[in-house]
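INTERNAL TRANSFER SHEET
From: sequence group
To: structure group
Subject: Phosphoenolpyruvate carboxylase

Please process the attached sequence and return the structure record in the designated field. Keep the field labels unchanged so the import script can parse them.
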Amino acid sequence: MIPRTMSTQHPDNVFIPFFAGSPTMGGEDEVVEAFYAFSVLGIEEQMWDFEGKEVDEFVVKKLFERYGYFFKQRKLGKELRLTPRVPNPSVERAEAKLLLETLEAIPRSADYARLFYGEELPPIFEVILPMTTSAEELNRVYELYRHYIAGKQYKRVHDIKLHEWIGEFYPSEIAVIPLFESREAILHAAGIVRRYLSGKEVEYQRVFLARSDPAMNYGLISAVLYDKLALFELQELEEELGLPIYPIIGVGGAPFRGHLTPENVEAVLREYPSVQTFTVQSSFKYDRPPKEVIRAVERIRESRRREAQPVPGEVFEILDKYELRYSTELRALAPLIREVAKFVPSRRRRKLHIGLFGYSREVNGSALPRAIKFTASLYSLGIPPELLGLSALSEGELEFLGEHYLGLYRDIEFAFRYFNPKVAERFPFLRPLAEMARNYERDERHLEITSRILAGELSGELIVEAAGIRGFLG
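Return from structure group:
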C-alpha cells in the first residue's frame, strides 16, 4: 500500500515564490520548485505537466546533478514520485505528438537513474492522461509505451538490434492514471477503470478525479457530489476486484476548486475520507508561512483513509435545476469574465489549449479562461463562483445536499464574505444573492476593491491585492 500523499499541481498563488526568476514561472524554476517541495515541505510527488505548459523534459537529470546529496537519501521512483501529465491526443490534436516525446523520455530518465543509483529504479513509471473518457484511450497510451517505446528495442537496425546498440529500454511498461474531468466520465469512472484493468496484472491502480473543471462546467455543488459518487463507486470496484484503487483529487485553494488550504485541511479530509492523494497547489505552498505549510502537510501524511459514503439518487434530481440556473447565470457573466481575465496575472508559462470545456471552454460560442483565471475574475468582480446557481435551491434542498456535501455551509459562508451586493445593480438575476448576503459578514477591504473593479478600474494590482485578502488568486 502506498501512504497517503500529496502531489503538487497547478499554480493558484498570489505571491511569487522566492526561487522564481520572474513573475511567470518557467522550466528552470519548476526544477527548483520540485526540489523545494520534496526537501522542505515533505511532499512526496511532483506532477510534471507536459500537457499545456512549457516544462523541462530533462528534469530528472537536472535534479540528480544539482541535488544529488538529497536524492541519494530519498530515492526518486521509490520514496518520491515524479509523474508526467501528458496530452490526450483524442482531444488535444495540436499537442498530440508531444505524447510520444514525453513517453520517449521515460527510458532516458531510467538510464540517468541507473547511473545515479547503480540499480534498476525507474524514476518515472506512470503517467496521467487528462480528459479521459474511455478505457480505449487509456489502453492506447499503455500499449503505445509497451510496444512502440519500450518494445522497439527488439527491432533490428541494419545489422544489430536496437537495445544492443543503444541500450535497454526500461521500464518495459508503465501505469496510466486516468484523469476524469467531464460529468459523464466522472459518473462512469468505475466502469472505465474496470474495462481498462481487464486482463492486466497490476499491484494497484491510481485514479484522478478533477474538481476545478467540473465546478466550472456544472457548478460547485455538482462538482463535489459527482466526485463523491465516483469515490464510492471506485471503493466498490476495489472490493469487487480485490485490487487496491488509490484515488487522487485535484483540489485548489478556493472553495470553488476544493478549499484545500493549511487552515482547512481537517475539513477536506472529512469531505473526501477515501482519497489517497491530494494535490497541493501553489497558494497552499507559497501564500502561507512555511511552518504552517509543513504542519498541514504532516497532518495529511499522518492521516489514514476511511470509507467513502454513498450519495443517494435524490441528490441528482435537485442538481438538475441547480445546474440549469448556474449555466444561465454564467452565460450572462461570460463577457465580463473574459474582460477581467485579461488582467489576472499568469504564474506559469502555458501553451495554447484547444480542447475540453475548461481548457478552451465554450459558452455561447466564446471561450472562457482556465479555472484559475475564471475563479479569480469572478472573485475580483465580487461574484464568488461558489454562489452561482445557489438561488435555484430552497433551504430544505440545501440542508439535504449539506448532509452529503459536508462543507457546503462553510464554503457558502466563506464565499459570501467576498460577495459585493453592488453586482445586483448591474445583473438583476443576482438580487436573490444580495438578499442572502445580508445574513453574512463581509470583508470591507475586499468590498472596496471589487467596487473599484466593477466601476471599470481594471488592473492586475487590484486583482492581486484582493487575492491577498482571500489567500489565493483563483
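Handover comment: The first strand starts at residue 5 and ends at 8. Residues 5-302 form a domain with the TIM Barrel fold (CATH 3.20.20.60).
Transfer complete.
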